[in-house]
Amino acid sequence: MGDDILATFKILIIGESGVGKSSLMLRFVEDNFDADQSITIGVDFKTKIVNIDGVNVKLAIWDTAGQERFRTLTPSYYRDAQGAILVYDVTKKNTFQKLDLWLNELEIYGTRPSMAKMVVGNKIDQPNREMSRDDGFKFAKKHRTLFVETSAKTSEGVKSAFEEVVRKIMETDGLWDRNPRSDTVNLREEDRSQSFCSSFCSLL
Ligand SMILES: Nc1nc2c(ncn2[C@@H]2O[C@H](COP(=O)(O)OP(=O)(O)OP(=O)(O)O)[C@@H](O)[C@H]2O)c(=O)[nH]1
Q: Is the dihedral of CA 15, 19, 21, 27 positive or negative?
Protein backbone atom coordinates (compact mmCIF):
# COMPACT_ATOMS: atom_id res chain seq x y z
CA MET A 1 0.00 0.00 0.00
CA GLY A 2 1.28 3.48 -0.86
CA ASP A 3 0.21 6.93 0.21
CA ASP A 4 -3.03 6.77 -1.78
CA ILE A 5 -6.08 8.12 -0.03
CA LEU A 6 -9.05 5.89 -0.71
CA ALA A 7 -11.73 8.46 0.12
CA THR A 8 -12.62 11.58 2.05
CA PHE A 9 -15.30 11.33 4.73
CA LYS A 10 -17.20 14.21 6.29
CA ILE A 11 -17.90 13.63 9.96
CA LEU A 12 -19.94 15.95 12.18
CA ILE A 13 -19.64 16.32 15.93
CA ILE A 14 -22.92 17.45 17.51
CA GLY A 15 -24.40 17.75 21.00
CA GLU A 16 -25.17 20.28 23.74
CA SER A 17 -22.83 23.12 24.60
CA GLY A 18 -20.01 22.17 26.96
CA VAL A 19 -20.16 18.37 26.50
CA GLY A 20 -16.67 18.33 25.01
CA LYS A 21 -17.11 18.29 21.21
CA SER A 22 -14.16 20.61 20.49
CA SER A 23 -12.09 18.77 23.08
CA LEU A 24 -12.74 15.39 21.44
CA MET A 25 -11.69 16.80 18.07
CA LEU A 26 -8.56 18.39 19.57
CA ARG A 27 -7.64 15.12 21.30
CA PHE A 28 -8.16 13.05 18.18
CA VAL A 29 -6.50 15.37 15.65
CA GLU A 30 -3.67 16.89 17.72
CA ASP A 31 -3.55 14.60 20.77
CA ASN A 32 -4.00 17.62 23.00
CA PHE A 33 -6.37 18.84 25.73
CA ASP A 34 -7.21 22.36 26.88
CA ALA A 35 -8.92 22.70 30.28
CA ASP A 36 -10.01 26.19 29.19
CA GLN A 37 -11.32 25.20 25.75
CA SER A 38 -13.24 28.19 24.39
CA ILE A 39 -16.82 27.98 23.20
CA THR A 40 -17.33 27.23 19.48
CA ILE A 41 -18.93 30.00 17.42
CA GLY A 42 -20.47 28.66 14.22
CA VAL A 43 -18.26 25.79 13.15
CA ASP A 44 -14.66 24.66 13.48
CA PHE A 45 -13.07 22.33 10.98
CA LYS A 46 -10.03 20.06 11.00
CA THR A 47 -8.74 17.33 8.71
CA LYS A 48 -6.79 14.21 9.53
CA ILE A 49 -5.59 11.26 7.50
CA VAL A 50 -6.11 7.97 9.28
CA ASN A 51 -5.10 4.46 8.43
CA ILE A 52 -7.93 2.01 9.03
CA ASP A 53 -7.14 -1.67 8.51
CA GLY A 54 -4.35 -0.78 6.07
CA VAL A 55 -6.33 1.81 4.11
CA ASN A 56 -5.78 5.58 4.21
CA VAL A 57 -8.83 7.80 4.45
CA LYS A 58 -9.02 11.54 4.94
CA LEU A 59 -11.44 12.81 7.55
CA ALA A 60 -12.97 16.27 7.36
CA ILE A 61 -14.21 16.76 10.90
CA TRP A 62 -16.77 19.49 11.53
CA ASP A 63 -17.11 20.61 15.13
CA THR A 64 -20.42 22.46 15.40
CA ALA A 65 -21.49 24.95 18.06
CA GLY A 66 -23.74 23.50 20.78
CA GLN A 67 -25.27 26.86 21.60
CA GLU A 68 -28.41 27.62 19.65
CA ARG A 69 -27.51 31.26 18.97
CA PHE A 70 -24.37 30.19 17.09
CA ARG A 71 -26.17 27.68 14.88
CA THR A 72 -27.33 29.84 12.01
CA LEU A 73 -25.78 27.74 9.23
CA THR A 74 -27.05 24.36 10.39
CA PRO A 75 -28.22 22.93 7.03
CA SER A 76 -24.85 23.48 5.37
CA TYR A 77 -23.01 21.73 8.22
CA TYR A 78 -25.08 18.61 7.70
CA ARG A 79 -24.97 18.48 3.90
CA ASP A 80 -23.27 15.34 2.56
CA ALA A 81 -21.97 14.23 5.95
CA GLN A 82 -21.34 10.48 5.98
CA GLY A 83 -20.86 10.17 9.73
CA ALA A 84 -22.03 11.88 12.93
CA ILE A 85 -20.71 11.72 16.48
CA LEU A 86 -23.43 12.65 19.00
CA VAL A 87 -21.86 13.67 22.29
CA TYR A 88 -23.31 13.95 25.81
CA ASP A 89 -21.63 14.59 29.16
CA VAL A 90 -21.96 11.60 31.54
CA THR A 91 -22.02 14.04 34.49
CA LYS A 92 -25.01 15.99 33.08
CA LYS A 93 -28.27 14.13 32.61
CA ASN A 94 -29.86 16.98 30.62
CA THR A 95 -27.21 16.62 27.88
CA PHE A 96 -28.18 12.94 27.56
CA GLN A 97 -31.88 13.80 27.44
CA LYS A 98 -31.23 16.17 24.54
CA LEU A 99 -29.79 13.38 22.36
CA ASP A 100 -33.25 12.75 20.88
CA LEU A 101 -33.31 16.31 19.57
CA TRP A 102 -29.85 15.94 18.04
CA LEU A 103 -30.87 12.70 16.35
CA ASN A 104 -33.90 14.55 15.03
CA GLU A 105 -31.68 17.28 13.56
CA LEU A 106 -29.75 14.58 11.73
CA GLU A 107 -33.01 13.24 10.30
CA ILE A 108 -34.09 16.70 9.16
CA TYR A 109 -30.85 18.07 7.77
CA GLY A 110 -28.79 14.98 6.93
CA THR A 111 -28.71 14.29 3.19
CA ARG A 112 -27.47 10.68 3.41
CA PRO A 113 -30.11 8.30 4.78
CA SER A 114 -27.64 5.62 5.85
CA MET A 115 -25.28 7.98 7.72
CA ALA A 116 -23.06 6.24 10.32
CA LYS A 117 -23.93 7.42 13.84
CA MET A 118 -21.92 7.10 17.03
CA VAL A 119 -23.23 8.11 20.48
CA VAL A 120 -20.41 9.20 22.79
CA GLY A 121 -20.65 9.61 26.58
CA ASN A 122 -17.78 11.98 27.37
CA LYS A 123 -15.99 13.09 30.59
CA ILE A 124 -15.75 9.62 32.18
CA ASP A 125 -12.66 10.82 34.10
CA GLN A 126 -15.05 12.83 36.31
CA PRO A 127 -16.25 11.28 39.61
CA ASN A 128 -19.77 12.78 39.57
CA ARG A 129 -21.56 10.64 36.98
CA GLU A 130 -25.28 11.10 36.41
CA MET A 131 -25.51 8.60 33.55
CA SER A 132 -24.28 5.01 33.69
CA ARG A 133 -22.60 3.19 30.86
CA ASP A 134 -25.72 1.05 30.58
CA ASP A 135 -27.93 4.13 30.03
CA GLY A 136 -25.82 5.11 27.03
CA PHE A 137 -25.66 1.57 25.73
CA LYS A 138 -29.47 1.14 25.87
CA PHE A 139 -30.04 4.45 24.08
CA ALA A 140 -27.62 3.46 21.33
CA LYS A 141 -29.22 0.03 20.97
CA LYS A 142 -32.70 1.54 20.72
CA HIS A 143 -31.60 3.96 18.01
CA ARG A 144 -29.26 1.50 16.28
CA THR A 145 -26.17 3.64 16.64
CA LEU A 146 -22.66 2.81 17.71
CA PHE A 147 -21.69 3.69 21.30
CA VAL A 148 -18.55 4.39 23.27
CA GLU A 149 -17.62 6.24 26.47
CA THR A 150 -14.69 8.65 26.33
CA SER A 151 -12.55 11.15 28.15
CA ALA A 152 -11.04 13.88 26.00
CA LYS A 153 -8.94 14.68 29.08
CA THR A 154 -7.27 11.28 29.47
CA SER A 155 -7.90 10.27 25.80
CA GLU A 156 -9.67 7.05 26.81
CA GLY A 157 -11.96 5.80 24.03
CA VAL A 158 -11.37 8.82 21.75
CA LYS A 159 -9.50 7.00 18.99
CA SER A 160 -12.10 4.20 18.90
CA ALA A 161 -14.96 6.72 18.70
CA PHE A 162 -13.63 8.14 15.43
CA GLU A 163 -12.24 4.91 14.02
CA GLU A 164 -15.44 2.93 14.54
CA VAL A 165 -17.42 5.60 12.69
CA VAL A 166 -14.96 5.38 9.80
CA ARG A 167 -15.24 1.58 9.72
CA LYS A 168 -19.03 1.83 9.70
CA ILE A 169 -18.92 4.32 6.79
CA MET A 170 -16.53 2.07 4.87
CA GLU A 171 -18.78 -0.97 5.23
CA THR A 172 -21.97 0.89 4.23
CA ASP A 173 -22.73 0.54 0.52
CA GLY A 174 -23.52 3.73 -1.36
CA LEU A 175 -22.37 6.05 1.43
CA TRP A 176 -19.05 6.98 -0.10
CA ASP A 177 -17.08 7.22 -3.34
CA ARG A 178 -13.44 6.53 -3.96
CA ASN A 179 -11.25 9.60 -4.42
CA PRO A 180 -10.19 9.79 -8.06
CA ARG A 181 -6.78 8.13 -8.29
CA SER A 182 -4.04 10.25 -9.80
CA ASP A 183 -3.01 7.49 -12.23
CA THR A 184 -6.51 7.20 -13.68
CA VAL A 185 -7.03 10.93 -14.04
CA ASN A 186 -3.66 11.75 -15.64
CA LEU A 187 -2.66 9.64 -18.59
CA ARG A 188 0.72 8.04 -18.21
CA GLU A 189 3.50 9.54 -20.37
CA GLU A 190 3.61 6.58 -22.81
CA ASP A 191 -0.20 6.64 -23.26
CA ARG A 192 -0.12 10.34 -23.87
CA SER A 193 2.52 10.12 -26.64
CA GLN A 194 0.61 7.20 -28.19
CA SER A 195 -2.69 9.05 -28.27
CA PHE A 196 -0.86 12.12 -29.59
CA CYS A 197 0.44 10.10 -32.54
CA SER A 198 -2.72 8.15 -33.32
CA SER A 199 -4.86 11.25 -33.47
CA PHE A 200 -2.43 13.80 -34.79
CA CYS A 201 0.70 12.21 -36.37
CA SER A 202 -1.38 10.28 -38.91
CA LEU A 203 -2.80 13.54 -40.21
CA LEU A 204 0.61 14.86 -41.15
N1 LIG B 1 -12.78 16.60 32.91
C2 LIG B 1 -13.06 16.69 31.60
N3 LIG B 1 -13.31 17.90 31.06
C4 LIG B 1 -13.58 17.96 29.74
C5 LIG B 1 -13.60 16.81 28.90
N6 LIG B 1 -13.91 17.19 27.64
C7 LIG B 1 -14.06 18.52 27.68
N8 LIG B 1 -13.87 19.00 28.94
C9 LIG B 1 -13.97 20.39 29.37
O10 LIG B 1 -15.34 20.80 29.23
C11 LIG B 1 -15.40 22.16 28.79
C12 LIG B 1 -16.21 22.27 27.51
O13 LIG B 1 -15.52 21.60 26.48
P14 LIG B 1 -15.69 21.95 24.92
O15 LIG B 1 -14.83 21.00 24.19
O16 LIG B 1 -15.49 23.40 24.69
O17 LIG B 1 -17.25 21.64 24.73
P18 LIG B 1 -18.12 21.84 23.40
O19 LIG B 1 -19.10 20.72 23.38
O20 LIG B 1 -17.24 21.98 22.21
O21 LIG B 1 -18.88 23.22 23.68
P22 LIG B 1 -19.53 24.28 22.62
O23 LIG B 1 -18.41 24.85 21.83
O24 LIG B 1 -20.20 25.31 23.46
O25 LIG B 1 -20.53 23.53 21.80
C26 LIG B 1 -13.96 22.66 28.65
O27 LIG B 1 -13.58 23.31 29.84
C28 LIG B 1 -13.16 21.37 28.49
O29 LIG B 1 -11.82 21.48 28.94
C30 LIG B 1 -13.31 15.53 29.51
O31 LIG B 1 -13.32 14.46 28.88
N32 LIG B 1 -13.05 15.55 30.86
A: negative
**Across residues 124-143, what is the average pLDDT?**
98
Asked if 5 contacts 54 with a C-beta cutoff of 8 angstroms, the reply is no
**ipTM at complex level:** 0.99
In this prediction, residues 2-24 reach a mean pLDDT of 92
For ligand 1, atom 22, the nearest C-alpha belongs to 17
Domains of the chain with bracketed CATH: 7-171 (3.40.50.300)
- Across 5-114, where does the E strand assignment appear? 7-15, 43-52, 55-64, 83-89
Task: Determine the distance separating the centroid of ligand 1 and the alpha carbon of 19, expressed in angstroms.
Answer: 5
Answer yes or no: is the C-beta of 40 below 6 A from any ligand 1 atom: yes
CB of 153 closer than 6 angstroms to any ligand 1 atom:
yes
- Does residue 190 have a pLDDT over 70? no
Centre of ligand 1 to C-alpha 36, Å, is 8
19 C-beta closer than 6 A to ligand 1: yes
